[in-house]
Structures are given as structure tokens and as C-alpha cells.
Design brief:
It is built from 12 helices and 2 strands; from the N terminus they run ααββαααααααααα. It is an all-alpha fold and 252 residues long. The protein has 3 domains: 55 residues, Multidrug-efflux Transporter Regulator, Chain: A, Domain 2 (Orthogonal Bundle), CATH 1.10.1660.10; 63 residues, Orthogonal Bundle (Multidrug-efflux Transporter Regulator, Chain: A, Domain 2), CATH 1.10.1660.10; 101 residues, Antibiotic binding domain of TipA-like multidrug resistance regulators (Globin-like, Orthogonal Bundle), CATH 1.10.490.50. Strands 1-2 form a two-stranded antiparallel ribbon. It is elongated. One of its GO terms (molecular function) is DNA-binding transcription factor activity. Keywords: Activator, DNA-binding, Transcription, Transcription regulation. This is MerR family transcriptional regulator.
Length: 252
């Protein structure tokens, strides 16, 4: 779908979608030869997640950090968002009841205690928001770093050498196509290494990690040290790999 079609479908402005693209929150999967942004089904699914979190009061930068976290899981996020929205609905129902009772109190129909006048107001941090930040925020990065610190010096050196070897192999392929057989065989090595040594990465999490390689300057700088443009190449190759694997799993 083109950007205007997405804007009309969702009910948001084209300018908003441009802004999401500019900050790396929602980057369309394709851009046509004439410069039109083309949004895929995956883009629309991601936009739904973004808007749910936005409706729940999350800042855009926090949403970006969470949805591109390697550990992000869409179904898990929907489950949590449902809990948060139910809690919000309960709170709104309480506030509506407070308003109605206050109106009756003003007309002299009922009496209200001071406590009743403020029923439904909530100023404490949402527990589900804390949970979301814990699952997909900085805590996940800290956990990964903690796992690495548990390795011996020899194990860390061996892992670093194995990682560097894959980076170098991919750097030699970066002038080609990310979807090529050679690139996909090598990017699978990266997927397997991460799952064996770092943590559990779903296909969506692997794709999200690839997006971080181009969204986060620290990742880009470190990866591009092996060859300019490698971060972008890896990000695209990881997206292709993840989508193909999900398609094959669905076909089975």
C-alpha cells in the first residue's frame, strides 16, 4: 500500500507516517522507482503495535526501543496491551462514575466523601508499562551482557573470533544482493551463533535486531568497521532470512 492509502486506512496523517519513517520507527519495506513509499503487511502489523503502545501513553522513542528489541514478540505484546487496555477501561469507568456522582452531588441528590471525589484518578506508574519496559527495554541488553560476562576469557575470545569471522565473510558479500544464496547461508550462521551463544532469538526478534543495526549509531559504527555499508547489508539480509523462514514454517 502507498502512504496515502495507509493514512486513509488507519486514520492518521501522511505527515505522521513521514515522521515515523524519519525517526526510524516505521520504515516502509519498499520505495518505488518514482519515490513512493510502499508499506507491506509486516509494516501494517508493526504500525498496529506502535499505535497500541501510543494509545497507552508510551513515548515514541520508548516504543521504538521496545519493538526493535531482539526479544520483542508480537503476540506477547498484544497480550500485554490487552491487559493494559482492560485496566485503562476499568479506570475510565471509575472516572465516569465519579463524574456522574459529582453532578448528582452538585444538584443535592447525593452526598460524596472527599475520597469519593477522586475515585478513578491514577498517578502511579502503570505496572504493565513497567513490565513492558522490563521485557523489551534496556533490561534485555543488560541480560545479554550479563550472560557474556559469565564466559571465561578463553570462551569470550573464541566467541569474538567466531563473530568476527562471520562479519568478515558477510563484508566480502556486501556488494551483492542480501537475498542471494551466499548471503542467506552466511546470515544463517549469524542466526545460529546468536541462538547458541547469546540468547533465544525468534525470527521476528532476529529481524528486529537487524533493524537496530541501522537505527542505532553504535551498532552501525561497530559493524561498518568491517566494511562500509555492512550494517545495512546485514539488516536487509536478516529481514529476508526471517521472512523466508516464517513463510516456510507457515507452509509446513
Amino acid at each position: 500500500m502507498r502512504i496515502k492509502e495507509v493514512a486513509d486506512l488507519v486514520g492518521i496523517s501522511v505527515r505522521t507516517l513521514h515522521h515515523y519513517d524519519e525517526i526510524g520507527l516505521l520504515v516502509p519495506d519498499q520505495v518505488s522507482d518514482t519515490g513512493y513509499r510502499i508499506y507491506s503487511e509486516n509494516n501494517l502489523a508493526l504500525l498496529q503495535q506502535i499505535l497500541f503502545f501510543k494509545e497507552l501513553g508510551f513515548p515514541l522513542q520508548t516504543i521504538k526501543q521496545m519493538i526493535y528489541s531482539p526479544s520483542f514478540d508480537r503476540y506477547e505484546a498484544l497480550t500485554l496491551q490487552r491487559k493494559m487496555l482492560i485496566e485503562k477501561r476499568v479506570q475510565l469507568d471509575q472516572m465516569i462514575a465519579t463524574i456522574e456522582k459529582t453532578m448528582q452531588h452538585m444538584k443535592g441528590e447525593v452526598q460524596m466523601t472527599n475520597e469519593e471525589k477522586f475515585a478513578g484518578f491514577q498517578f502511579d506508574e502503570n505496572l504493565y508499562e513497567q513490565e513492558a519496559r522490563k521485557r523489551w527495554g534496556n533490561d534485555k541488553v543488560d541480560e545479554a551482557n550479563a550472560r557474556l560476562r559469565k564466559l571465561s576469557n578463553e570462551q569470550q575470545l573464541a566467541l569474538r573470533e567466531e563473530m568476527n569471522a562471520i562479519f568478515k565473510e558477510l563484508a566480502d558479500l556486501r556488494s551483492g544482493f542480501p537475498a542471494s544464496k551466499e548471503a542467506q547461508v552466511t546470515i544463517k550462521k549469524w542466526f545460529d551463533l546468536l541462538n547458541q551463544q547469546i540468547g533465544q532469538y525468534s525470527f521476528d526478534a532476529f529481524k528486529g535486531l537487524g533493524q537496530l543495526y541501522v537505527d542505532d549509531e553504535r551498532f552501525t559504527k561497530n559493524i561498518d568497521a568491517f566494511g562500509e555499508g555492512l550494517a545495512q547489508f546485514m539488516s536487509q539480509a536478516m529481514r529476508v532470512f526471517a521472512e523466508r523462514q516464517k513463510e516456510e514454517a507457515g507452509a509446513d
